[in-house]
Amino acid sequence: MHRIRPTPTRRTVMAGGGALAGLALIGCSRGANSLGAASGRLPETRIGGIPIALDAAERPFRLGGNSGPTPAWLYGATPFPLYRMRLGENLDVTLTNRLVEHTSIHWHGVRGPNAMDGVPYVTQLPVQPGESFAYRFTPPDAGTYFFHPHCDTAAQLGRGLAGVLIVEDEAASFDDDIVCVLKDWRVAKDGSFLPFVTSEGAGRGGTFGTLRTVNGLVAPQIAVPAGADIRLRVLNVDSTRVSDIGVQGAEVRVIAIDGNPLTPFALDTWRLGPAMRMDIILRTPKAGGRIALTDFFAAEPMVLATLVAEGAPKRGEPFAPTAPAISKHTEPDLANAERHELKLSASAAATNYDVPTSIQLADGRRIDLLDSLCSTAQTLWAIDGKTWPQMGHENLPPPLLSLARGTTARIELTNTTPHVHPMHLHGHSFKVLSANKLKRPEHWADTVLVMPEERVEIAFVADNPGNWMIHCHIVEHQDTGMMGWFRVV
Ligand code: C2O
Ligand code: CU
Predict the structure, then answer these.
(1) Confidence band for 38, pLDDT divided at 50, 70 and 90
(2) What pTM value is reported for the model?
(3) Quick one: how far is CA 197 from the chain centroid?
């Protein structure tokens, strides 16, 4: 009602409808691609209370100026379907696997029920080729989320399996709401994929993509209303790259991190690691004015996307943005917290779990083994001295932590390595209390950057029962050992 939305197009329908999307891609992928290039916006689908069929399939997609299409694995006709729903509505998404290997959907950052968390062998069985799985739950918080698979992630996410989930709060009013999804692709000039994992990369900061995109496009231009207050949701879904995001050409306030609202502060730059999100509000200039979403990480700042103002100004009053409602997460009880330290380290040796740990899934089945797609091919990293099981030793490991429901956990993440690790916890949002290298205000998050040799303290109330993953979101680190799980009982 108070937002300007792109007029629904055929693509909006196609992106959500499984069979239709499948059909559409054969004839229309070029058309869809150029339409995307014209608007720069992702096609949107409203999903609240509506059953949605989602196919994961190989869908050739032309990236940038490459000479040929990329054999992408996508959830829709084009990369990153964007689902919107209102807080309180139900999500009902049925994934059908049309890939050559098993997959699942993890709803990153959503504090949903454990059985819907999408982690093969920990919360559900993998969805095998030809099979379907229905994800049904009501997200408990408004926010900016994304979704992706959870085994063989370097390859599956690397090939393009990611989508955006927005749960809208109606407390704040903006003139437009724009989503920018940052992802690099490991492609050659002919569009073919390059190896997603390299031993040089996996053992260091990760293997970087060769082509940077926003919404699947190279440096898109996105038309926005002039003189307007717009909300910009920036998602880093890249497997590897940490960006230092700033905005040139407008006054900007940060209003949420990882979907968690906070007291707005002026944006200088924000270090956005893999899986991290940032919502900002800005006032657009008059018609013709341009705003650049920029990565200041490298010596040469790089413009990732440009917003171009169009039309008559929407607002005359000075920029005084109202923030969305403040976070409703339960405050951690620091005085009575259980303290833990988790060391992030390199590890050449795989931990052997002689006795398998058994997990009971929601449907009653018991799991104690992983398959090779869900174990690490090579071991390079560990959490608390323990590695995710390596291929050939597929016993499920014991939990890193076991927390009684309602306990406040205060965890020190200690990085003993010279590399940055964006650490992510499933099923909970945590408060970032302190960090001794990279200054940042106290805020809620689901993924936090732990800088080289840094100690970061987080705390949360373990109030969501189940078996939850904790891992680094540099996907090659996750896939080579820096992953474990914790239990809330
Ligand atoms: Cu983005 Cu384990 O997740
Ligand atoms: Cu890492």
Answers:
(1) low
(2) 0.92
(3) 19
Residue where the block lists tokens 């724009």: 178
How far apart CA 297 and CA 274 sit, in angstroms, is 14
Q: Residue of the nearest CA to atom 3 in ligand 1?
A: 108
Q: Is the CB of 106 inside a 6 Å radius of any atom of ligand 1?
A: yes
470 pocket-lining for ligand 1 (C-beta < 6 Å): no
290 alpha carbon to ligand 1 midpoint, in Å? 34
pLDDT in tens, 368-408: 999 999 999 899 999 999 999 998 888 999 999 999 999 99
Tell me which residue has tokens 């189940």: 466
Cα 454 to Cα 115, 298, 384, 407, 415: the distances in Å are 34, 21, 15, 25, 5
Q: Report d(CA 28, CA 324) in Å as an integer.
A: 38
Q: Which two tokens stand for residue 23?
A: 């059909």
Length of the chain as a residue count: 489
User: Token pair of 391, please?
Assistant: 């291929």
